[in-house]
Amino acid sequence: MENNNKAEQKKRILSGIQPSGALTLGNYVGALRNWVQLQKEDIYESYYMIADLHAITVRQEPAALRKNCMDLLAIFLACGLDGEKEPIFFQSHVPAHTQLGWVLDCNTYMGELSRMTQFKDKSRKHADNINAGLFTYPSLMAADILLYQADLVPVGKDQKQHLELTRDLANRFNNAYSETFKVPEPYIPKVGAKIMSLQEPTQKMSKSDPNENSYILLLDPIDKAVKKIKRAVTDSGSEVCMGEGKEGIENLMSIYSAMTGKTMDEITVEFQGKGYGDFKSAVAESVTETLKPIQERYADLMKNKDYLESIYKRGAEQANYTARKTISKVYRKVGFIQP
Ligand code: TYM
C-alpha cells in the first residue's frame, strides 16, 4: 500500500520506439540511453512501449514485424531498462491506445496533421502508400502519452513537433471537457538529440537510409561499426571542434560525448593538436565499449523467450491498469453511456 502511494506521487514518463527495423545509434543516443538514466534516478514512474501500432503505417512483413518486436524488447532490456521494476509493453496489447486515438482524431484538425514533417517525409518515401493511418499517426502518439498522464516524454529532436501537438490536444480537450489530461513536457537531451548521418552529416541518421555506411546499428558487428566510423565524412580541416562546415566532426563529437559523458569543450581540449585519425579511433573505441555489452546481453536474452514473454505480459497488465482509468474518464466526459 505504501509502495502504491509512493508510485502515485512520482512523476510519470512515457516513451516508445517503433519496431520498424533495426535500431540505430541515433535511437540509442537520442532516446534509449536517456530512458535508462532516468529510470536509474528513481524519481519517475516510467512506461516504455514498443509502438507496433505505429509501425504498420508503413507496410510491414508480418513475420519480420514479429521478429522486430521481440528484438526491440530484448534490446530495451539489454540497454539496461528494468522490465521487472517498471512496465515495458507492446502498444497493441493495450486497447485503450486505439480507443483514445479515435477520440483525439475527432479533436485534431486536418491542417495540424498536414503540417507534420514526419508525415511529409514518410509520404515522400512511401509515395505508393500514403494511408490514413500515416496521416493520423500524431493523434495516436498523443493518445499514447496522454493515456498515462505522463509528465515527461524523453525523445529525440525529430519528435518535438509531435510533442507540441500532443500538448495542444491535451489543452484543447481539457478546455472543452474539463481537466482530464496532464500536459506533458518533452525531454530532449542537450547533446545527441539529433545524431546525423555519417555520410551526409546534414541529414538525420536513419535506418531507412539506403547507404548503410550512413548509420550504425546497435546490433552491427563491432568491426563493421568501427569501419563505418573510420569512413565517416569529415572536412578538409584538421581541428576537432564545432563550427561552420564542421557538421561531420561535430556529429562524431556528439557521439563521443554521449558514449563517454565528456562535454564538447573537454573533447576539443583532449584532441588539440591531434588529427582526425586519432579522434576517429577514440570515437570507435567508445562506441565499441558501449555496444559490446549490449550485444552480449541481447544474445543471452534472445535465448530466453519465456523470460521475455513474462516481461511483456507483466508490462501489458500494468499498462492496461493505468490506461483503463484514463479511457473510462474520457468516455464519460465525451458523453458515452457507461457499459
Ligand atoms: P522512432 O521509432 O522513429 O524513434 C525512436 C526514438 O529515437 C529517436 N531518434 C533519434 N534521436 C537522435 N538522433 C537520431 N538520428 C534519431 N533517430 C531517432 C526519436 O526521436 C525517438 O525518440 N513516433 C515515435 C514513436 C512513438 C512515441 C510515442 C515516442 C510512438 N508513440 C509516444 C514517444 C511517445 C517514433 O517514430 O520514434
Helices and strands in order:
Layout: H1 2-9, E1 11-17, H2 25-41, E2 44-50, H3 52-55, H4 62-78, E3 88-90, H5 96-105, H6 110-114, H7 117-125, H8 132-147, E4 152-154, H9 160-177, E5 185-187, H10 222-230, H11 247-260, H12 264-270, H13 276-302, H14 305-334
Parallel strand pairs: 1-2, 2-3, 4-5
Helix pairs in contact: 4-13, 5-8, 5-14, 8-9, 10-13, 11-13
Bound molecules: tryptophanyl-5'AMP.
Residues 14-18, 26-27, 29-31, 51, 54, 141, 144-145, 153, 155-156, 158-159, 193-195, 204-205 line the site of tryptophanyl-5'AMP.
How would you briefly describe this protein structure?
The protein is mainly alpha-helical and 339 residues long. It is 56% helix and 7% strand.
Quickly list its features.
3-stranded parallel β-sheet, two-stranded parallel ribbon, mainly alpha, Rossmann fold, binds tryptophanyl-5'AMP, 5 strands, 339 residues, Tyrosyl-Transfer RNA Synthetase, 56% helix
Descriptive report:
With 339 residues, the protein is mainly alpha-helical. The chain has 2 domains: 2-192 and 305-334, HUPs (Rossmann fold, 3-Layer(aba) Sandwich); 212-299, Tyrosyl-Transfer RNA Synthetase. It contains 14 helices and 5 strands. It has helices spanning 2-9, 25-41, 52-55, 62-78, 96-105, 110-114, 117-125, 132-147, 160-177, 222-230, 247-260, 264-270, 276-302, 305-334, and strands at residues 11-17, 44-50, 88-90, 152-154, 185-187. The strands form 2 sheets. A 3-stranded parallel β-sheet has the order 1-2-3. Strands 4-5 form a two-stranded parallel ribbon. The protein is globular. Residues 14-18, 26-27, 29-31, 51, 54, 141, 144-145, 153, 155-156, 158-159, 193-195, 204-205 line the site of tryptophanyl-5'AMP.
